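Narrative summary of target 7.
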Amino acid sequence: MSRPFGSASALEQRRRQAVQAVHAGDSVKDVARIMGVGPRSIYRWLELERLPDGLTAKPHPGPATRLSLEQQRELDRLLRQGAQAHGWPNQLWTTQRIAELIHRHFGVSLHHDHVGRFLRQRLKWSPQKPRRRARERDEDGIERWKRDTFPDIVIAAGRRNAHVVFLDESGFMLTPTVRRTWAPQGQTPLLSCWDRRDRLSAISCITVSPQQARLNFYFTVLPDNRNAKAADIVAFLRQLKGQLGGPFTVIWDGSNIHSRSKEVRAYLAKHSEIVAETLPGYAPELNPDEGVWGWTKYGRLANLAATNTLELRRRIEDEFEQLRENRQLLGSFIWEADLCSAA
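Modeled conformation, tokenized:
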């Protein structure tokens, strides 16, 4: 006998409505006709009502998996080795590849659609977009910086009673950053926007106070269609110096408009209370300020089709002002950079 159509909870509600109708005085024949079932089903539901939880929803467990628990653990271990370890040219795991891996190691043939459900339900895997990582990275040097250099920077800043500042720049395009959205199947939404290259550049930083490790956020949005230059960095440092009211150590990447710039170096030489430290190359994830750009561009402002740069500027500044008040979120950016344990 096939299972009736509908979720377990919907079927439970249907049974309880039928039983209540009979108790209210309706005939079994009439209730069966209205519910679209035979009278025997109504009588069976009346019998089940007498049992504890007799009418309670019982979700269908689905077919038993053809891989044992031990084989599931082994499959998880094999998948964590990466696709290249099993002969594929890249690290991309598709359901077709995983189905082939299962057949190769366990002799079990599974349809790739079932493999997707199996990965979600049994192994708690999900489809994800990989993050790109430069091959030029010096992984050992990055680990040394996190383990040795960064703690020394924090200690030295503490001795000077100085703030620690994580600074970075980014740009926002008038053309929106398009992200996925929900819509009826087969009806792809259309996002009306300008096909122009107008943009806004912004400089921001997350600061950590020397005594109580209190977090704060400062930013500036530059004039339309202008890339950040060394002069803008100097102006931002000058502004930040006045706002913090004391010495600070700024940590940034090796961009040409940072410590490599003659203009920036000249300014730092005149202000010994500002110490500049450079992050390892090709390691943007070590800068918590990167989280600011991800949060705004790919989260809060995703799919924003601004009418002009003025509207875009207002939205950026509004989001930054809200971020300034959300110190828990600022702390999550530092946590994501994996600097808490290093310090």
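The mean pLDDT is 91.
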